[in-house]
Protein 1
Amino acid sequence: MRWIRAAGRGLLVLAVVMSGYMASGAHADERDRRGPLTLATAGDLTGYLGPLLEGWNRTHPAEKVTLVELPDSADETHAQMTTDLRGGDRGRFDVLNIDVNWTSEFAAAGWIRPLPRDRFPLKSFLPPVVDTATYDGRLYAVPYVTNAGLLLYRKDVLAKEGVPPPRTWAELEHDAKTIAPRYGLDGYAGQFLPYEGLTVNAAEAVYSAGGTILGDEGTRVTVDSDAAREGIGFLARGLREGWIPKAALTYKEEESKQAFQDGRLLFLRNWPYAYALASAKGSKVAGRIGAVPLPGPDGPGKSVLGGSNLAVNTHARHPDSAARLIAYLTSEGVQRQVLTRGSLPPVRAALYEDPTLVRRFPYLPTLRTAVLTAAPRPKSPHYDQVSLVVQAVVQDALTGHETPAAAVRRLARELAAVSGR
Ligand code: GLC
């Protein structure tokens, strides 16, 4: 009898071990691919990501993620990530929150790995964002946050003047020149320090006038056009005439948002996070601002498509956990928090039509249209060099060292050199 009981106990132990193994739903090698991770990101301007990741860490104690926050400026983050990735071996970062326009460069260099499409809810995303995550027909990252530039304006001031927000550059220029000074305000600003933000602002001006910078997936230089001269000319004139303050030449997103939030600007081009923060407690202009599409020469202009994608380092320690973390961060519940806690535009299309969210974030319908009509930056494995050239040349035009026409000619020459054409 005793041996029967002993054998029974043995079987019970075996059954418990087996069921534990099967409940984990993983084969041994797959479990090896699970474990702790690091997630590198550019500066988290709204401070939401750390607390959000605590939710994952609580429920995934064996796959804890450590957040590595890099600088605010896209270019500095790019430099730190690429230095690390070039170092080979494993590097410090397992999952990388990369700017949408870096996907091609990182994929072509072999720094990030292709991902299986069926593991992620790509069909639930706004269509243009998925394209930013693909290179050479393969998925190399998963869209996480999208972005489009908006024109923020002082609703109180325009209401007093009885004028609607500007739809054209001429209206913007007129209001910035005539209305702003009457209220002790500067007219208009964007992000004009030489870094990725200046490339974005310059591209938006060129695209809004109907021009382009590069064509055919970045292989043809198309910038030498009247539209580009008009776009760069618009910004250069603002600085020359003073309705764009000189200080704007030192602005990145944060500095320009601060100027608006301190009540120093009538109009600001920025990403929607600035609308959310300038509407929050502590902002001098809370409750007194509105957001409309960027203006263009004869009507609404065009925004550049911003945002970031989540990619997995080719040498990631635990690739299965990396993919699981990405699926979590792009789930509907977390994407909702990206908006409600991070004030960042989610990639899930349904959230833009959620009545509760639209009530709380009145700019969502405008933003949805801006994202759907936004123009992507050129998909080039040399995008970093393309952007550096744009920044340097456009800065010379904005500081008055070169006329817009001469700057556009030089831009065409230097872009041809960079892309080898
Ligand atoms: C925002 C955008 C990003 C862009 C950057 C420029 O972070 O989401 O795409 O490159 O601003 O400063």
Note: Confidence is low (pLDDT under 50) at residues 10-25.
Protein 2
Amino acid sequence: MRVLSSIVASQLDTHGRYGGVVPELASREHLRAIVPVVRLALEEAGTGFDDLAAVAVTAGPGLVGSLLVGMTYAKALCFARRLPLIGVNHIEGHIHAVIAEAAREGRAIEFPALALVVSGGHTHLFEVSAGFAYRLLGKTRDDAAGEAFDKVAKLLGFSYPGGPVIDRLAPHGDPEAVRFTLARMKGNPLDFSFSGLKTAVLRWSERHDLAAEIARRRALLREQPRPSLEQWLAVTPQRTLDLLASFQHTVIEELLRRAAASAEEIAARSAIFSGGVASNAGLRKAASEASLPCPVFFPSPALATDNAAMIAAAAFPKLERGELADLALAAQANLTLA
Ligand code: KG4
Ligand code: ZN
């Protein structure tokens, strides 16, 4: 697969000031963006509607208002141009971003593969077999890993999304400074839980009376919606840098412990890490050094966070297999992959 263009319309400026995604604003922004984004994508690719072989669309999971905008547009386009429609699961898109990229670089992913999908909405472990069949091995019982990054950043007065800012600040702190207990899962040991860790960070910040520095960071954010690393460092004392480093270290340990255990269990021949959190530098470094029993594949930064190329990548094998949808395809907020 070759990517001819991949246009991402970021809504960070819209949601950033609220410290999270506001569903009503998200669907309105989707509606505003969809026509110009498609036009720009075709323009950059040097193609037109006449060159298209099929249209792929995200069927879920996600915010239903946003999904419906894409779904309605895709159906209208397919109807008007008599094009085949392909419905794609968002999570499968994250997995295929990595598979397509590896193939392009001539590094084939071998099956069975373990897939760890870590984003703002998901923390899931799947077994992926040849032919792209999926089996769920474990998932979060409460917050997703990305959500934990976002919530911790918000409660400490940092910007949204929290992952990238914590990622940049963590190397300035000591990851061993604060010892958080790892989650112990009753039932399925491959499930995750991050809400306890988030609460532990909150309790630590209350015990150490961070109110004044949090107020300083919030003031900075009001003046400057996207502070530089130096600006953040100027309003973040060492103890808080240590806290951030320790928090990130704990999340990485939770992810890698279960990824390693899953890979063992299914005798994985490769591991695919994907989703927004897979762009975390600490995770990438730890995964390359960690004791995973197989090679680990990461997406390039552009394909790690949500994008259209990953949906096309997941759709391509479906098109080849003739797995087409019809105009009754539904947008499903809670669509599952397995
Ligand atoms: O996959 P994605 O773009 O959207 C969802 O499907 O959720 O992931 C966004 C999530 C956010 O929670 C964000 O904080 C997190 O991924 N994220 C990161 C990093 N970059 C994005 N988390 C940790 N480190 C990063 N560098
Ligand atoms: Zn995503």
Note: Residues 119-121, 146-147, 149-150, 161-164, 167, 275-277, 279-280, 305-306 surround KG4 (ligand 1) (CB under 6 Å).
